[in-house]
Structure formats: C-alpha cells, structure tokens
Amino acid sequence: MAVTLAACRSSGPAAPPPVAPPAEKVAAPIRYLPLAEVLRDGVWTEIGPHAVIGQLGVSPTLLAVVGERDDEVQVVYEDWEARVVGWVPVERLHATVLRPVALAGSAESRPRESHAAVLLLPGVPVAELDRADGRVEISASDGEIGARGWVDDDVLGRVWVAEPFPDDPEATHDLQPGTPIYRSPSTDAVVVATAGSVAKAVELGTRGGWSEIRVVGSWMNVHGFVEESALELTGGAMYGFGKMGGQPPASWPDVPAGTCLVAAAGGEPVGVTLVAMNDREPVPGGAKVELSPPWGDVVLLAEKLTGGGWRTCPIRSDSR
Fold first, then answer.
1. Contact status, residue 74 vs residue 87, Cβ threshold 8 Å
2. pTM for the structure as a whole
C-alpha cells in the first residue's frame, strides 16, 4: 500500500489535519517476496503461525498471501505435486473476522469473550446478513459448526495472520450432523450454533438427559448443551485412494521435481513441481502440466531448455 505525503506553505491559520481514510482490513502488512523466493522457500506456503493468509473456493482453501496490487492479492497454492502462484481479486477471498470475537445474539448485546457461547476465530468464513449502527449480522461456518449473530463491522476482513489451529485432546464425542446446541438445557432455550458433519465435542457433564459440551473447531469455539442422544463416541474411518483414467502413451515424458512451470515458453516462472510428474503430455517447448488451484484450473508448461534438459527452479530439500 502506498501513502503519499504532501506539505504546503500558508500565511493563514493552520489547516485542520486531513481525515485519515478507512484503514485497510488486513491484519498485518503483507510482506512482498520475490517470485523466485516464493517458489523456492516452502516455509512461506505452509499455513502455520504468523503466515498472512486468505481463503478461496467453494470448499475454502487456505492460501499464503505474498503480494498485493490495486484490488488483487498474490497467493500461493500448494498440493502434493506442485506449487503455483496467481493473482486473484481480493473480493474473491472469503470474508472472516480478523481477531477472536464473541458472537452476540443481537445488535445491542456485547458478550465478553470469556463468557461467549460462540467465539469466532480468524479464518472462519462468514457471510453478511444485515447491518445496524456499526454492527453486522453474520452467519459463520467452519464446516464443523454453524452459527449466526452480530459483531462490530471493523472486525471483518479478508486477509489475516494465521495462528496455530486449536487442539482439544479431550474431545471424545462426535455430534450428529444438524444437532442444535442450546444456551441452556432446554429445547425452549436459544440455539447458539448447529453441528456440521464433523464436529467433535468434549462432554463436560450430564443432567436430566442433557450433556453440557465444549466444541473446539478449527475457527470457532462453542459452549452449550445438547440432548445426550445427539452424542456418539468418536470412531475412526478408513479411506482408500485409487488411480482413475486410462494409461497415457509410453512416449510421454516424466517431469522431474524442481522443474519450472511457466505460462508460455521463456516466461517468468509461476510455479514449480514438488515431485516427479510421470507421463505428461508433450507439447512444443516441454510438457503440459494441468493443475487445479482454487482460483480456477490452469494449464502450464513444464519448460525444456534448448539443450534438452528441464528448466529448474530449485526447491529447498526440507520444504516438504
């Protein structure tokens, strides 16, 4: 963000100080990095403490934010095969809260964080529903818990500084999807949140067919009551992965790890392979690499040099 300062001489009375423009809703200044450093240094793409990040996509994906221009941010996406950099409009990032905030039941109430039934954490995707006198009614969901309530409008933004994901080793129960969480042990009480498909809970106590619980989600903490029948002991699940599609032609080349990915031959690198990619379709100048970052599918070129080798973008051996 650029700030221009101006001064002038005047023999009259001093002019009142200019009114400052509204502050950008960014939790911390974005540290601009050279593209080569972004591609090389995996530490800037890991979503760990103090990374400046945003979320994008129908199923929100965390992205490291490494640059900014006008109304766009430069983001880094990484999967097991490759790391790629792209520019997206900041408005495409999900809105969230920039600091921990208690969700209020009305525009007038302001519960303390320590006594909140629902505490929203930076990163929880939110949607604006209504506004009134500097307050915003929002819906919030982290996939585990969904809730609705009011916050101050100055806590909302789209880019924030990451903190470690909370961990609750005491969580031994699963909440059935759609379970309402009440403020007190009665179906006539206010519903403070609703369980999603993977919510896990700590059972704090039981009474009269009700369980007092605490849910520590990725971006939302909830304290309330559910009917005992809604709790199940946590179980495990087994998942398998298979390879889909037919076999590619035997003549298709393998692209080694550390190969530069470009939009066009001779262009500036916008990505790098992190593992060897087998059997990639040959095209003039190299091989085709198709990736699906959350801002949209991209087709890049794994570039070959005129001498026959691959153009390399070194990656740190300890970045994986």
1. yes
2. 0.69
